[in-house]
């Protein structure tokens, strides 16, 4: 195929196949394996800190939004990172920061809260080109973009959702990227997204054969738990 490009390899919550996801060890290992960047999840704590954590609750303890960062960190044995700490490990790499917000979750707070905290934090960064802020929540993306212009933003697409409709929603938000599950993709759909001016970063691809397949679809980035597997697979691509 002419004009074939190699997509970025982005570590899903760090090297989370082997290590605790979103942990310092996972990010450090991902960097050591040669990833181009990483995807991580952020949530606001009750004292206004930005915690790097996927789940809405800490098992046996409570909802992230209802506790201070210190209390959560103690409950997790000191493994919880603030966003600043994770970005220090990933310094210079491409980082997709996903704002987690779902009204069905325990201890849910409106997406605007995390977006505002994140915008305030990132606005102090001189270099903005290596950061992408994304969410399933259109409101979260919209609020962030209004408060912190100049950063790339992206809209995630659920498994089985109408991909093209989601692309148009992303375009209306002024987004730079659409982030679908890999099962949604084929070359035609990726081309349609590109024709709308959207980059395509797909999640979460761990099988080497599928890594090559989505790469041949011309995606711009592949989020994976298996950084070493993806990098090796792309050498044959």
Total of domains: 1
Number of strands: 12
Any idea what the shape is? globular
CATH architecture: Alpha-Beta Barrel
CATH homology superfamily name: Phosphatidylinositol (PI) phosphodiesterase
Largest sheet: 8 strands, parallel, barrel
Could you name the CATH class? Alpha Beta
Determine the N-to-C terminus distance: 10 Å
Kindly estimate the percentage of residues that lie in beta strands according to DSSP. 15-25%
Structural class: alpha/beta
Portion of residues in helices? 25-40%
Helix/strand order, N-terminal first: EHEEEEHEHEHEHEHEHEHEH
SS summary, helix count: 9
Which ranges are low-confidence, i.e. pLDDT below 50, for 5 or more consecutive residues?
none
CATH fold naming:
TIM Barrel
Across the major sheet, the strand order is 1-2-7-8-9-10-11-12
Nearest-integer average pLDDT: 95
Descriptive overview:
The protein is α/β, with parallel strands linked by helices and 237 residues long. It has one domain: Alpha-Beta Barrel (TIM Barrel). It is built from nine helices and twelve strands. Strands 1-2-7-8-9-10-11-12 form an eight-stranded parallel barrel, surrounded by seven helices. Strands 4-5 form a two-stranded antiparallel ribbon. β9, α6 and β10 form a beta-alpha-beta unit. The chain is globular and about 50 Å long. The protein starts with 7 loop residues before the first strand and ends with a helix. The mean pLDDT is 95.
Write the layout of secondary structure elements.
Layout (H helix, E strand, L loop, with lengths): L7 E5 L11 H10 L3 E8 L5 E3 L4 E2 L3 E2 L5 H7 L5 E2 H7 L4 E6 L11 H12 L8 E5 L2 H10 L4 E6 L5 H11 L3 E4 L6 H9 L3 E4 L5 H9 L4 E4 L2 H8 L3
Parallel strand pairs: 1-2, 1-12, 2-7, 7-8, 8-9, 9-10, 10-11, 11-12
Antiparallel strand pairs: 2-3, 3-6, 4-5
């Amino acid at each position: 195929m002419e004009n074939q490009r190699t997509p970025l390899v982005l570590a899903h919550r760090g090297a989370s196949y082997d290590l605790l996801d979103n942990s310092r060890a996972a990010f450090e290992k991902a960097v050591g394996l040669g990833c181009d960047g990483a995807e991580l999840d952020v949530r606001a704590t009750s004292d206004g800190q930005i915690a790097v954590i996927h789940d809405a609750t800490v098992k046996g303890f409570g909802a992230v939004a209802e506790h201070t960062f210190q209390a959560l960190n103690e409950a997790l044995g000191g493994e919880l990172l603030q966003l600043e700490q994770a970005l220090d490990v990933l310094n210079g790499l491409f980082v997709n920061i996903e704002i987690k917000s779902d009204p069905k979750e325990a201890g849910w707070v409106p997406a605007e809260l995390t977006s505002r905290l994140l915008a305030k934090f990132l606005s102090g960064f001189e270099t903005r080109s290596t950061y992408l802020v994304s969410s399933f929540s259109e409101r979260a993306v919209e609020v962030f973009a209004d408060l912190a212009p100049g950063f790339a933003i992206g809209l995630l697409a659920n498994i089985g959702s109408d991909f093209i409709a989601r692309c148009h929603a992303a375009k209306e938000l002024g987004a730079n990227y659409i982030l679908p599950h890999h099962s949604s993709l084929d070359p035609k759909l990726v081309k349609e997204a590109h024709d709308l001016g959207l980059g395509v970063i797909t999640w979460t691809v761990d099988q080497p054969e599928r890594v090559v397949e989505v790469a041949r679809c011309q995606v711009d980035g592949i989020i994976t738990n298996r950084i070493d597997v993806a990098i090796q697979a792309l050498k044959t691509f």
